[in-house]
Design goal:
Blueprint (H helix, E strand, L loop, with lengths): L32 E8 L2 E7 L20 E7 L7 E5 L3 E4 L7 E8 L10 E4 L10
Antiparallel strand pairs: 1-2, 2-5, 3-4, 3-6, 6-7
Organism: Penelope pileata
InterPro entries: FN3_dom (IPR003961), FN3_sf (IPR036116), Ig-like_fold (IPR013783)
GO biological process, one term: extracellular matrix organization
C-alpha cells in the first residue's frame, strides 16, 4: 500500500477546579455605557461596558464577566410601544428584525441584584439599501 494510514486517539481533557469566585462584588453599581452601531437597514450591533475614564479605553466589567448575564431592551421610540427584552451572556449582541428608517430606544443592565439600566440610547436604523443613494 502506497497510501499512508493514520490512527487517531482521543482522550478527555483534564477538568480544572480553578473556577474563580465572584463573591465580594461591589454593591455600588454604575450604569453600563452602551454603544450602538448600524449593521444593515434592519439590524444593529450593541456593545457595552463600564467607562472608567472618557479619556481612556473601555474596561471589562469584572474578572468574572463569564459568570454574568445582561439584559438588553429596545423598542420603537414611542412611549406606547412595549419593550423587547433579550438576555445576553456577553457584552455585545446583534439586534435584528428591526424596521428600516425607524428611531429606536436601547438600554442594557447587568443582571446582578440592584443593577440599574444604562442611559437610554436613541438610534435610527438606515433606509433599505434599495433606497440608499451613493
Amino acid at each position: 500500500d502506497a497510501e499512508p494510514r493514520y490512527l487517531v486517539s482521543v482522550r478527555p481533557a483534564r477538568v480544572s477546579n480553578n473556577k474563580k469566585s465572584c463573591s465580594g462584588r461591589n454593591k455600588n453599581q454604575k450604569p453600563l455605557q452602551l454603544v450602538v452601531g448600524t449593521l444593515t437597514p434592519t439590524s444593529v450591533f450593541l456593545s457595552w461596558g463600564i467607562l472608567v475614564n472618557p479619556q481612556h479605553d473601555w474596561t471589562a466589567t469584572s474578572n468574572c464577566a463569564s459568570d454574568r448575564f445582561y439584559t438588553v431592551r429596545y423598542r420603537e421610540k414611542d412611549k406606547d410601544k412595549k419593550w423587547v427584552f433579550q438576555l445576553c451572556p456577553v457584552t455585545e449582541t446583534v439586534v435584528d428584525n428591526l424596521k428600516p428608517n425607524t428611531l429606536y430606544e436601547f438600554g442594557v443592565k447587568d443582571n446582578m441584584e440592584d443593577s440599574i439600566w444604562s442611559k437610554t440610547f436613541n438610534h435610527k436604523t438606515v433606509l433599505s439599501s434599495k433606497y440608499l443613494v451613493i
